[in-house]
Amino acid sequence: MTSSLDWQAIHAELTGIETITDPQQLTKLSLDYYHFSPILQPQLADKRADLVVRPVNEAQVQQVAQVCVRHKIPLTVRGAGTGNYGQCIPLMGGIVLDTTRMNQILWIKEGVAAVEVGVKMAAFDKQARLQGWELRMYPSTYRTATLGGFIGGGSGGIGSINYGQLRDRGNVYGARVVTLEDHPRILTLRGDEVQQINHAYGTNGIITQLEIPLAPAYPWAEVIVTFGDFLTAARFGQALSDGDGLVKKLVTVCADPIGGYLTALQEFIPPGQSCALLMVAESSLDPLEALVKDYGGTITYQKRAQEAQKGTSLAEFTWNHTTLHARAVDPSLTYLQTFYFDLERVAAMYEQFGDEVMIHLEFLRVAGRAIPAGLQLVRYTTPERLGAIIECHEAQGCAIANPHTYILEDGGRKVIDPLQLAFKEQVDPYGLLNPGKMRAWGEKFDRK
């Protein structure tokens, strides 16, 4: 699709914008953590951009958009590349638009902030906390991930125990988006309109700015609790998540032997023990200790907020960083993403699969209640066996957000979003944005 293009001429049309053509850099900036999946590895390993651009402002984004439309060049938008499903990998070459130089915090006031899309989440929180605020939720890649990348390719994370997922109404207030029409426009989306671009992998617009709500900043203490029995640990996690008077930000529960893969924490998680990794407000430490006692747990690690801010955060052993640490020990491991909805399904799957599917729970709010979701570690053997494990979970009423596909609709909701398709038809009529990722767009042409 791009082999016949005159890339020297295209360079000339991008005057004033940083461009990258070095092969090693092109490789680095064309890939993400897709290698977590043995299914995606062979599908995506050889995908590369022909050119990477790093605009510094919205006007330069419009310039890139105009060049892509003029020459019908595929355009893939990238944040920090910390996703796991190939969200920002260019399937058809072309240009990758790296947003990391668009990193200005525009304003923070009264629990709301406006930012450029490339602002790093940890850098943002450092400034927001000066005013008593912080991000509502963030992924375990918090130190390097960008806000735009999180909105475009993420779904939830640390803080979701309080605020649910990004797609929940009120978690994104507004966005500015550059279109890929013959004459690229800048659109301002407000309220429910942002769902058109929320978690859309950049398939239907280039986000340049975001307006997001914030949460009150607490001094977060970090705690590890161990249990001799996984299901007791899971019940403890549910009780803590349900405890309205306990202020928390993270409730992670890992079945034995997952603690053995978290090498930096091994002195706090003895062999044979399941564990809970927690972030709670310092003011909730005393009632937390009482809850731990009720469930027969043992606190093996505790850091108050000031100490916890030094070095590696406990959050970096949770969510998909658990997978990262486990794969550093055993690269044959892969993972699943599961909504169990209740502990009965957790127990059923734990009994059925044992150590083949090691259960790692993250508690989050869904429709007003705390539920257990899984980022299970899977001892991978064959695609067929992985498919059978997924089918078994779904037959038991679990919902799988499949991390082994790069297709937008096949990963999470399993349905076509008519709003996102209609918006793409409006703003990307030539289908240049991240082509090959939106099933609805391909099916549109199959029906013709």
From TrEMBL:
<dbReference type="InterPro" id="IPR016164">
    <property type="entry name" value="FAD-linked_Oxase-like_C"/>
</dbReference>
<keyword id="KW-0274">FAD</keyword>
<keyword id="KW-0285">Flavoprotein</keyword>
<feature type="domain" description="FAD-binding PCMH-type">
    <location>
        <begin position="45"/>
        <end position="217"/>
    </location>
</feature>
<dbReference type="InterPro" id="IPR006094">
    <property type="entry name" value="Oxid_FAD_bind_N"/>
</dbReference>
<dbReference type="Pfam" id="PF01565">
    <property type="entry name" value="FAD_binding_4"/>
</dbReference>
<protein>
    <submittedName>
        <fullName>FAD-binding oxidoreductase</fullName>
    </submittedName>
</protein>
<dbReference type="InterPro" id="IPR016166">
    <property type="entry name" value="FAD-bd_PCMH"/>
</dbReference>
<dbReference type="InterPro" id="IPR036318">
    <property type="entry name" value="FAD-bd_PCMH-like_sf"/>
</dbReference>
<dbReference type="InterPro" id="IPR016169">
    <property type="entry name" value="FAD-bd_PCMH_sub2"/>
</dbReference>
